[in-house]
Amino acid sequence: MKALYVFALTGDAMPSFAVDEHRVEFIDLDGLHAAIAWRTEPPILSESSLRAQHDIVMRLSEHLDAVVPARFGALIDERELRDILAVRRETIQNALSLVRGRTQMTVRFRGAPRSKPLSDRSPVGTVMTGAAYLEARRRAARTMPAVANVVTTAVAELAIAERSEAGTGRTPAALYHLIDRGKVSAYVDAISRLQLRALSVSGPWAPFAFAPDLWP
Amino acid sequence: MSRRKVRHSTVPSAKPANVRPVATPLPRRRTIPRPPARALPRGPAPRQEAESIFPPSETSLADVIDNLLNRGVVLNADLILALADVDLIYVRLSALLCAADRILPPQR
To answer: Would you call B53 helix, strand, or coil by DSSP?
Structure first.
């Protein structure tokens, strides 16, 4: 039995197209649209399937003003999708309004930031529980590099929204900015003027980092 | 016994390689035969080599993974419990795999 494999929710529809073996179609969801493919099972997590989905979402973003990408592996019945939208419609419409005519830029900071020192002693007279200790360790380990504030300030006039992901030691810290589509060059120039070698900028991307959770 | 110091650094030296610092001459010592050469463990690669290891296409893959998997993946599964070839219970499982702090609101 075939179900909907959802690539993204969009404000408008466009003619269906094909990428590899995926034929991307649009269904109308009472004013919203979903870019979907009819499938019997979700794709296997692999580099090729990730690239295929990424290409599809990027193509949607190139042709449509407002695109909210869905999570990888989102296979769902049409009735379930309509039920979810009935509950999450306002959130999704707000997200579509936020990303309309805008694109995402990503800044990654090379090198793991140093963890903040964590005192191994509790304040006198208190006892630190195991959970509290682990929470303190987690807070200390997940830190944004100091240079992130410099980047935020440099692009403050261009960024409509910002989201940050602290580094974990294995993964670099990252800043995600939502900017107007016509301001990509200005954004890159603003960061280039900082002359910081410890970061890399990529984009423009579909607003992956600014998509709300479609599945509550 | 003197030991040769091997430096591994990604920072380019400020001095030309053929310039040695001036040092006070030491009295000559008896020559000690060098031990047979051993393979030293490789230190961190210089920056230029490291960049050549990661071609642009790999960077693109990092972006793909970051963009698509940063907020988790949805796993779907069908579970059928049967007894004597009779299907009794059907469970359709749709699970979200994601780091908790990516979807839960930050604690104040």
So the answer is: helix
> For residue A121, what are its two tokens?
């002693």
Tell me phi and psi for residue B46, to 5 degrees. -60, 160
Cα separation of A27 and A32, whole Å?
A: 9
ipTM: 0.70
Instruction: Count Cβ atoms below 10 Å from residue A100 Cβ, excluding itself.
Output: 15
Closest CB to B76 among A42, A165, A206: A42
Joined tokens for residue B8: 């591994």
Structure tokens at A104: 């995402």
pLDDT digit string (tens) for chain A, length 216 residues: 788 999 999 998 899 888 877 889 999 988 899 999 998 888 888 888 888 889 999 999 999 999 999 988 888 888 888 988 888 888 899 999 999 999 999 998 876 555 555 555 555 556 677 777 777 766 666 667 888 889 999 999 999 999 888 876 667 788 999 999 999 999 999 998 888 878 889 889 999 988 887 665
Decide: B98 and B104 in contact? Cβ < 8 Å: no
- The whole-angstrom distance between B4's CA and the closest CA on chain A is 30
In 10 A of CB A187, how many CB atoms? 22
In angstroms, the separation between the Cα of residue B29 and the nearest Cα of chain A is 45
A35, amino acid identity: A
CA-based nearest distance B96→chain A, Å: 9
Residue with tokens 């779907």: B76
Instruction: Using CB atoms, pick whichever of A47, A74, A142 lies closest to residue B74.
Output: A74
Rg (CA), chain A: 21
Mark yes or no for CB contact B68/A72 under 8 Å: yes
Q: Which residue of B has its CA nearest to A135?
A: B107
- What gap in Å lies between CA A76 and CA A2, rounded to an integer? 9
Residues in A touching B70 (Cβ below 8 Å): 165, 208-209
